[in-house]
Amino acid sequence: MPWPKSTKTVRIRKGNLYAADCPTRIVLDDVTSRWGSLVIVLLLEQTYRFSELAYRIGGISEKMLAQTLRVLEEDGFVLREVFPTKPPRVEYSLTPFGQELAERVQYLTSWVENNVAKVMGNREKSRQMSA
Amino acid sequence: MPWPKSTKTVRIRKGNLYAADCPTRIVLDDVTSRWGSLVIVLLLEQTYRFSELAYRIGGISEKMLAQTLRVLEEDGFVLREVFPTKPPRVEYSLTPFGQELAERVQYLTSWVENNVAKVMGNREKSRQMSA
DNA sequence: CTGTATCCGCTATGATACTG
DNA sequence: CAGTATCATAGCGGATACAG
Description:
The structure is a homodimer. The first copy, chain A, is mostly helical. Helices cover about 55% and strands about 10% of the residues of chain A. Chain A contains 5 helices and 3 strands. Chains A, B: It comes from Terriglobus roseus (strain DSM 18391 / NRRL B-41598 / KBS 63). Chains A, B: Keywords: DNA-binding, Transcription, Transcription regulation.
């Protein structure tokens, strides 16, 4: 059932996306997580503060926003800057590395945005077929 | 808390990705679901049978594969062809619409594959910082 | 303002067994 | 082969309260 390993010296140069233990999947999950992709694409616009992100991303809770941002920061996609003012102020932006990624994500999300109507139509047909 | 609606006649032409009720998010979740993106990119290679997909995508269960494929089919991304042989044989492929999507997804996944090592490195640093 | 800590329900997922 | 049905469970994610 596990994937047949081609050799013993399989390295993490370019992981096999289809192997159960491929680290690429882990990273991909960060990027395509429920809120991850939204945060990434939004930060492509400009730098935002925590509360601004919370406001703009409808439906997200503080907990999930903080958690999502922390993961993206650990991965090196997002830069977190703390300004020791009173009250504190934290700004989030994309690193150059994160910008590369974000452009790819946006390439996907924008396509979905532009084609969502057609998808919803396809779903309607499906529902009628089964009815 | 909800996004300020620009007008009352907001339609689903081009949804607002950041609105909680935006249908784009639903479709995006289908596409970026745990197994969705893997299936989509794999089908970009060629047509596959159910069992072939199950074999190639390490770690997926039959249940999740069937479920993922059904959603992608309803969305109009995947074509399901049943050959009434004995035993039955079902082939899955991308529709032209699905191919458009798949190319966008692959554009993302391939970047992640090529940069996963750097991400893992960034994570290491993060862990050391906090230690 | 920017989070963290805790509780907790719900859903997504996996394992298993079964059907056409 | 290609699924479906059922059950069990982990953990996602929301609500709330609290802290620096």
